[in-house]
Design brief:
194 residues, alpha/beta, Translation Initiation Factor IF3, Hypothetical Protein Ychn, Chain: A, 5-stranded parallel β-sheet, 4-stranded mixed β-sheet, 35% helix
């Protein structure tokens, strides 16, 4: 059987992984060759393939990596997707500390990757400057709207919206209060804090 080719050269993170994952998930069994042009993309695609119980063979040609991934019938068959009551607490409009510009790029990448993921949280809670993400001119508004359509509950702290004078600019999700935020955290099986 001929391998499908994914040319991910020049693609920014996380696109090589997302494109590879989509093809692998569509296969019952078979192989995919993903071509990337940097070490980070190669490592990320290999990690994805291994997490999906696939066999991996890497060929390097000049500055490019040809990653052949073979999925056997036992790959993802019967795997249960996580359905736990997980919550993501977002406390800033940037992801990580250090450069604000880089933090905004990383947040956009995270929200896009989350939207593309099969395993979604039940709720996302936005506090402090993270409420900017749910309002007009947010760089991740499209991804958040997509997450909401897929059933993710989006809640923005009302006190925070008032503090930043954003209540009238809320575009996605609902306004909430600290009691509800704490209740969601306490009832969650897993809380991820960004």
């Amino acid at each position: 059987m001929k391998s499908q080719i994914i040319d991910a050269r020049g693609m920014a993170c996380p696109m090589p992984v997302i494109n590879t994952k989509k093809i692998l998930e569509s296969l019952h069994a078979g192989s995919v060759t993903t071509i990337v042009d940097n070490d980070a993309a190669m490592e990320n695609v290999v990690a994805l393939a291994k997490s999906m119980c696939c066999e991996v063979d890497i060929q390097r040609k000049d500055n490019e990596f040809y990653i052949q991934i073979t999925k056997r019938e036992t790959g993802l068959q019967g795997e249960e997707h996580e359905t736990r009551n997980s919550v993501i607490l977002v406390s800033s409009r940037q992801l990580g500390r250090g450069s604000e510009e880089l933090g905004e790029i990383l947040m956009k990448s995270f929200m896009f990757t989350l939207f593309e993921s099969e395993q979604l949280p039940r709720s996302m809670l936005f506090i402090n400057s993270a409420v900017y993400l749910t309002c007009e001119n947010s760089p991740v508004l499209e991804h958040l709207m997509g997450l909401q359509k897929r059933g993710v509950e989006l809640l923005s702290c009302g006190t925070c919206l008032d503090y930043f004078k954003l209540k009238e600019k809320l575009c996605v999700g609902q306004v909430t209060n600290m009691y509800t935020i704490l209740e969601k955290i306490n009832k969650a099986d897993k809380v991820i804090s960004l």
